[in-house]
Amino acid sequence: MVNEKPLFALKLLAVTICCFVVPKMLLGQTDSTELPLGLDSIQLVEKSYRELIPEEAKSMEGMLTVHEVKDQYYFEIPDSVFGRDIMAVTRMSKTPTGLGYGGEQANRQVIRFEKGPKKKIFIKVVNYVNVSSDSLQSIYQAVENSNLLPIVAAFDRAATREDTSVLIEVGQFFATPPQIFDLEPTQKQIYGLSGIESDKSFIKSINAYPINVEIRSIKTFSSDPSGLFFLGAPPRGGAFSMGGANAGTVTFEMNTSMVLLPKIPMRRRFYDPRVGIFSNSYTVFDDASQGAKPETFTIRWRLEPKNQADAERQRKGEFIEPKKPIVFYLDPATPNKWRPYIKQGIEDWQEAFEQAGWKDAILAKDWPEKDSTMSLEDARFSVIRYFASEVQNAYGPNVHDPRSGEIIESHIGWYHNVMKLVKNWYTVQAAAVDSQARTNEFSTELMGKLVRFISAHEVGHTIGLRHNFGASFGTPVEKLRDSAFLSKYSHTSSIMDYARFNYVAQPKDGVKDLMPHIGEYDKWAVEWNYKPIYDAKDEYEEKKILNQWYLEKAANNPRLRFLSEENPHDPRAQSEDLGDNPMLASAYGIKNLQRIMPRVIEWTKEEAKDYKAAEELYDNIFKQYRTYIGHVTRWIGGEFSTPKTTDQEGFVFEPAPAPMQREAVAFLHQQLFQTPKWLLERDIMGRIRPDQGLAMLGQLQQATINYIFSNDRMFRMIEVQSAYPKSYSVEDLFADMHEGIWSELYSGKSISVYRRNLHKIFLNIMLDLADVTDSNPYRSFSFFRSSPRMEAKFTDITSLARGTMLQLHKELGKRIKRMGPGLDKYHLEDCRRRIEVHLELGK
Question: Are strands 165-169 and 159-161 parallel, antiparallel or unpaired?
Fold first, then answer.
């Protein structure tokens, strides 16, 4: 995603708790096959068939044969489809105002048609969790006994063609379908929807194609306004009443794609945590194994040579075109001015695929609007769907075969207002260097470049790449100011990092290109996931070859390092940061913010307009400043976590270097705790807000100190010190923070209102830490899920907090004796008295 992840809460997939038994062919590799149907060659064995399907019926052959007879729809299911896995993807084609956007996914399930007793036809849901690879093994039956598939639908056979096909009536079923073909329950609850109103719900069309069937329907739901604020959040857009709540109903147009999965799945490629690829997994039970064996494999498109001659050329190092390239179509709703840039972002990945041996492996095309055989919701086609929305985001999902990880298709969600998001980012991160960013509206050329960047990032997700928050750490900070280096390498080695724009470059550095591009890591990750390994007989042998690739190419190259955003303790893997030293990088970033701040009014003013644009720019500057503070704070008590295999040297877990942790504390004293007056310019504050930033700054200082003295962080530092005596210790942290926060006690300087507030914030946090009563919320913690829980009263934390307060009590007493009457003295006396009361001194 371009932005944070709140939208995925509305896109939860219903998960059926069930499993399956995989036939032995699962672990092989072959092409998918289509199912030919020849109606003319099939002999009728039941007279009732022609009575149900007369000559004038509208019939369409494909994976299934679909018959439309008056107001009824029938599926004719050939024997070859029974027992086959089918991916059912349901999308909202059209939505009421405020309830999602046309093109968004509503549900996804793997299903099977199976013949049941008493001439019943069942639909069962399959979820790939536990497998047995061979039906001849003894354990196969045990797996089957514990993983019964749920029956979600049952049909009577309307007619049968002996040894060929079965006819069932499906009209009413798809007009009011079960959960697996509908909005999932949590989404309904968020939207305030109850039951389907059958008299207002109907099928618009059902079409059959060689490997899929497309069902388009209108669904009308009863609405319940009392359910609108489920989970504490209103529906997106805040316009639910416009969607039909006042009428008591809401209507959606839905499309379900039923896509036949390959009979024999694609060969898997096993996942490696050292390379950031999305993955799928299940547990394998085997007679020969001494326990259940989890197997995790990557998500990727099926790229294959057109013929054996091409395969031989590719084996020798030539680029070849795949038999079936990855094609992304642009939604016809996409504004014309942005189409070229979105296409460029898609095809920017061609260079990465070339490193994997593929030419023209990914293509961008306009949607063929005149082709009636194609639908935007058809799960055979990948589309960038364009949403008319105020949401500032974009996302890049995929639909894949859970058996092998083969990506079937992707529908990228592109919200129109994502341009506002990147405009705000680029202004605060680049306007000090790029004069084009100093206006309320960017030129088409500049916005086009930003659109291209978004497109490339989201497409990266759809080809399987995860965020790589460690990529930017591979670039030395001073190289971010080197135009020659940047023109060759860009400011990060991965466009999949959240390293938006180069905020380190200074105005006199001469840097022109401040945007990320497809980088070294991106090309390496695509090579690792997509380059064919012709010499491996199976995926297990491939795994060993892939490990050698990593050891030879990436293990010692920091620009090819992958670090997951899922590790909250590794300060190298952070969102929005740049360079290998965030203290230095953030100092450069703050210098640029200080250059922008005096221009806030000048750059945003328009005739007959108020100061809302100036207020928005100021808020974005403060958010960016807050981001820099967060980058630095993560280094205190940080722990490096570097995935390694047993054939690599060195530790997986190591503490962040002590000098960098000390540097982080010093940075916070200089840039945050010493009042950043540049944020509080009266000429700006007096025009955009009634306050002077006292509470705003105090809240950031309080949050930062709380974060520094969190239980997890301090206990982690205590643990580390026991193994690394020269590490930055908790005692060092308490001493450095105390000395910086209370510097006025030693310098004799007057104390501003901002600093007085800071003193009390720090004091109250220390007193809470010194409290060992059972009511103390700080008392127990665990910094790893598998770690035992500890109580603060059993560690050095409370001792250090209490000792720090006793020391402060003495220092306050000495300073107060030398002061005359006034607010500074009253403030210090108040602080001293709080310590006495809390620690019960003198009793």
Answer: antiparallel
Question: What CA–CA distance (Å, rounded) separates 81 from 67?
Answer: 17
DSSP, residue by residue, 381-416? SEEEEEE--S---EE---EE-TTT-BEEE-EEEEET
Maximum C-alpha span of the chain: 110
User: What are the tokens at 19?
Assistant: 């499993």
CB 49, CB 159: distance < 8 Å: yes
DSSP β-bridge partners for residue 296: 281
Which residue type, as a one-letter code, is found at position 38? G
Nearby residues of 247 by Cβ (< 8 Å), 6 or more positions away? 223
Average pLDDT per 10 consecutive residues for the chain, totaling 843 residues: 42 32 37 39 53 91 93 93 94 88 90 93 85 59 67 91 84 88 85 86 92 93 64 42 66 93 94 95 67 83 96 95 97 96 98 97 95 86 93 91 93 94 97 97 97 97 96 97 96 96 97 96 98 94 96 96 90 97 98 97 93 96 98 96 93 95 98 97 92 93 96 91 93 97 94 97 94 52 48 84 95 94 96 93 72
Amino acid at residue number 444? T
Other Cβ atoms less than 10 A from the Cβ of 484: the count is: 10
β-pair type (411-415, 780-781): unpaired
**pLDDT confidence of residue 778:** 43
Whether the Cβ atoms of residue 378 and residue 399 lie closer than 8 Å to each other = no
pLDDT for the residue numbered 39: 38
Both tokens of residue 306? Answer: 């057109």
The H or E element spanning position 754 is helix 753-770
Cα–Cα dist 749/726, whole Å: 34
- Cβ(64)–Cβ(213) under 8 Å? yes
Whole-angstrom distance, CA of residue 492 vs CA of residue 500: 9
Instruction: Specify the residue for token string 């960038």.
Output: 384
Q: Check residue 239 and give its pLDDT.
A: 37
* Tokens 């899920």 found at: 785
pLDDT tens-digit map of 714-753 = 999 999 998 999 999 999 999 999 999 999 999 989 999 9
Residue 385: φ, ψ to 5° = -85, 130
Q: What is the per-residue pLDDT for 143? A: 57
Element of type H or E holding 280: strand 279-285
The closest of 642, 693, 704, 719 to 671, measured between CA atoms, is 704
- The 10s digit of each residue's pLDDT in 466-512 is 999 999 999 999 999 999 999 999 999 999 999 999 999 999 999 99
Q: Residue 134 has what pLDDT? A: 58
Please report which residue ranges of 463-598 form alpha helices under DSSP H.
483-489, 520-530, 539-553, 582-596
What is the rounded CA–CA span in Å between residue 811 and residue 832?
9
Residue 557 identity: N
CA distances to 183, 218, 635, 768 from 198, in Å: 16, 10, 58, 60
**Residue 46, C-beta contacts closer than 8 angstroms, at least 6 positions apart:** 159, 160, 161
CA distance 122 to 140: 23
Q: Partners of 255 in the beta sheet?
A: 91, 216
Distances (CA, A) of 174 to 100, 179, 326: 21, 11, 31
Q: Give the CA distances from residue 480 to residues 476, 546, 582, in Å, rounded to whole numbers and listed in that order.
A: 7, 32, 12
List, as own/partner pairs, every contact residues 322-325 make where C-beta atoms lie below 8 angstroms and the sequence separation is at least 24, other chains included. Answer: 322/358, 322/361, 325/360, 325/361, 325/362, 325/363
Tokens of 814: 């000495």
Measured in whole angstroms, how far is the alpha carbon of residue 28 from the centre of its chain? 31
Output DSSP code: residue 672: I
pLDDT of residue 290: 60
> How far is the C-alpha of 445 from the C-alpha of 426, rounded, in Å?
14
Give the Cα separation of 155 and 158 in Å (integer): 9
